[in-house]
Amino acid sequence: MGLKNQEGPSAGPDWGPTSPDQMETGPDSSDGPDIDAAELDRLGRQRPAVFPNIAYELFFCASLLVSMFMAEFFISGFNIILPSSFLLPFGRLADIHGAYVVFNAGLIWFAIWSLISGFSTNYQMLIVARALGGLGPAAFLPTSIMLLGKTYRPGPRKNLVFSLWSAFAPIGFFLGIITGGAATEYLSWRCTRSENAHIRMDYWGVVTVVPGLILTTFAITEGGHAPQGWRTPYILVTFLLGILFIAAAVYVEGWVAKQPLLPFDLFKPKYMARLSVALLFAYGTFGIYLFYASFHIGDYMGESALTTAIWFAPMAAGGLVLATIGGFTLHLLPGRVLLILSGCGFFVCTLLFALAPANANFWAYIFPAMIGSTLGVDIAFIVTNVFITTNVARERQGIAGALINSLLFVGISFFLGLADLAVAEDTHRGGTLGHKVAFWFAVACSAVTLIIFATIRLGKAESELTVEEKMRREAAVTRQKPLQKAESEPPQQEV
């Protein structure tokens, strides 16, 4: 993998392309068995052959970076309702029709509904337009990862591009906060197709996964605010229906679908399943931190909306610096060390806010918490993106991108809902901790993240063979073994 296991190379996945045409990785790919470390390093640093010159590569990367910027801008500034349950179907559509088609369709869709949102005449129209617009990022976020994953082979160049892509997340996020804060303060609210021809859509997966995620997330996030809490009939009904749909989805994906929407063997590479669980807790922690940190600064400490936005500046600046530096150093530092540092960042940022008083000093509590949060989310985002895309075959890069974004948005929605439920229960019982309950819950989640990260033994993100090249090498070795055995056996004498 790009981030190698310190315990030695793993056997790798046993799925992937089944024909030579499907296993081609581009003009700069290697046959595998005869390649040496120096050649791998050269391939990992050179410009992909698909770009005739540097200008093409720059425009290609710029389009993907700006897409990440826009998604984060609207998430932080305008609370975009991103239908995270549609990430997996769009990832499969990208695998079928190619990332180029789905990526551009998502951008066009997003632009149309953003324009409609700007002309909204009432609050209800704005909510509907924002919700429908959220289908755009659900399409272009996983496909942007797919395009990067299929274009760049493991190595320093891939690390740099993914780091820059990650850097645009805090930039867009912070500018969204600033814009939203300024608007609140001064304005009103008005302010690849032929390669994957054999892939098919898993419609049974769509009709079970999507409603399952929507219903359970709705029940968890609304349970604390319903008239009778979790005893409210519509909360119980939606939660039970969601659980039934998820159970049906597990059965369909595991034993019915020929080409599952979320194939279980996607988690077969070493540490993939463990890393996915850790990311759910990590992104859940980050979601709780973002929401309740704004609440703490604005309502609990009494700061203005614009001041609250400005106090998030260290987080954006730190994310930009970390992402940029990471592109040049990811192949030099062990992945395990980076993950532990990320887990410590999550723990520190939530603990500081859990302990912070109403008159907390910015430099003693807020500033180090913001630095800790960017250490947590940005390092985890870069390291895991490189890990997952490097360990997935070309034909599954769309699903890999959908998995990455699903872990992000489902983790935020699910754990934020649980934190909100804990806060509501504390309030109903006459508790006085209020939002502090959410921060202590986040501290517990960050501790789980740190423990799991510490058990994942990842090496450096160095240049190496792609999944397809490893498969060809293993197939060549398998073919050679019978020949070597036959040559080593003495000839039988005739009687």
UniProtKB/TrEMBL annotation:
<feature type="transmembrane region" description="Helical">
    <location>
        <begin position="337"/>
        <end position="356"/>
    </location>
</feature>
<dbReference type="InterPro" id="IPR036259">
    <property type="entry name" value="MFS_trans_sf"/>
</dbReference>
<feature type="transmembrane region" description="Helical">
    <location>
        <begin position="54"/>
        <end position="78"/>
    </location>
</feature>
<keyword id="KW-0472">Membrane</keyword>
<feature type="transmembrane region" description="Helical">
    <location>
        <begin position="233"/>
        <end position="256"/>
    </location>
</feature>
<keyword id="KW-1133">Transmembrane helix</keyword>
<feature type="region of interest" description="Disordered">
    <location>
        <begin position="475"/>
        <end position="495"/>
    </location>
</feature>
<feature type="domain" description="Major facilitator superfamily (MFS) profile">
    <location>
        <begin position="1"/>
        <end position="461"/>
    </location>
</feature>
<feature type="transmembrane region" description="Helical">
    <location>
        <begin position="309"/>
        <end position="330"/>
    </location>
</feature>
<feature type="transmembrane region" description="Helical">
    <location>
        <begin position="160"/>
        <end position="183"/>
    </location>
</feature>
<dbReference type="InterPro" id="IPR020846">
    <property type="entry name" value="MFS_dom"/>
</dbReference>
<feature type="transmembrane region" description="Helical">
    <location>
        <begin position="98"/>
        <end position="116"/>
    </location>
</feature>
<dbReference type="Pfam" id="PF07690">
    <property type="entry name" value="MFS_1"/>
</dbReference>
<feature type="transmembrane region" description="Helical">
    <location>
        <begin position="128"/>
        <end position="148"/>
    </location>
</feature>
<feature type="region of interest" description="Disordered">
    <location>
        <begin position="1"/>
        <end position="35"/>
    </location>
</feature>
<feature type="transmembrane region" description="Helical">
    <location>
        <begin position="399"/>
        <end position="418"/>
    </location>
</feature>
<protein>
    <recommendedName>
        <fullName>Major facilitator superfamily (MFS) profile domain-containing protein</fullName>
    </recommendedName>
</protein>
<feature type="transmembrane region" description="Helical">
    <location>
        <begin position="277"/>
        <end position="297"/>
    </location>
</feature>
<keyword id="KW-0812">Transmembrane</keyword>
<dbReference type="InterPro" id="IPR011701">
    <property type="entry name" value="MFS"/>
</dbReference>
<feature type="transmembrane region" description="Helical">
    <location>
        <begin position="362"/>
        <end position="387"/>
    </location>
</feature>
<feature type="transmembrane region" description="Helical">
    <location>
        <begin position="203"/>
        <end position="221"/>
    </location>
</feature>
<feature type="transmembrane region" description="Helical">
    <location>
        <begin position="438"/>
        <end position="456"/>
    </location>
</feature>
